[in-house]
Write a structure and sequence with these properties.
The chain is mainly beta. Helices cover 9% and strands 36% of the residues. The chain has two helices and seven strands. Strands 5-4-6-3-2-1-7 form a seven-stranded mixed beta sheet. Strand 2 (16-23), helix 1 (26-31) and strand 3 form a beta-alpha-beta unit. It is globular.
């Protein structure tokens, strides 16, 4: 795992590889998906254990990951919502609503992050 920096990479779920934007700085995490009309791939927020969708334009899927990158919860959030903090979560992955199930992201699945 190691430490990540703001940038790009890939989210690996089994055989599926998804373009990934990595947000680790306070500024990048705060900006997140705000003001976007769509999500290309996914966004990793680290460290993070909760998210909100205030001022977002689109619904999103949110996967909460523990320190070993195992999914502990997946939720679909509509704009204008506040997600509950997950005590064991260390990272959050956000993507367009409905896509994570197609990628195979579910509770108990371990994902990988490949940095470019």
């Amino acid at each position: 795992m190691g430490r990540w920096r703001d940038g790009h990479g890939e989210l690996v779920v089994g055989e599926v590889r998804v373009p990934l934007e990595i947000a680790t700085s306070y500024r990048a995490r705060t900006r997140g998906l705000l003001g976007r009309d769509a999500v290309e791939g996914a966004l990793l927020l680290s460290p993070a254990n909760s998210v909100h969708t205030f001022r977002m334009r689109i619904p999103i899927d949110v996967a909460y990951l523990d320190r070993r990158l195992r999914v502990i919860a997946v939720r679909t959030m509509q704009p204008g919502r506040l997600g509950l903090p997950r005590l064991r979560a260390r990272h959050v992955v956000e993507a367009g609503a409905g896509v994570m199930a197609g990628w195979g992201v579910g509770v108990g699945v371990r994902v990988g992050v490949v940095v470019e």
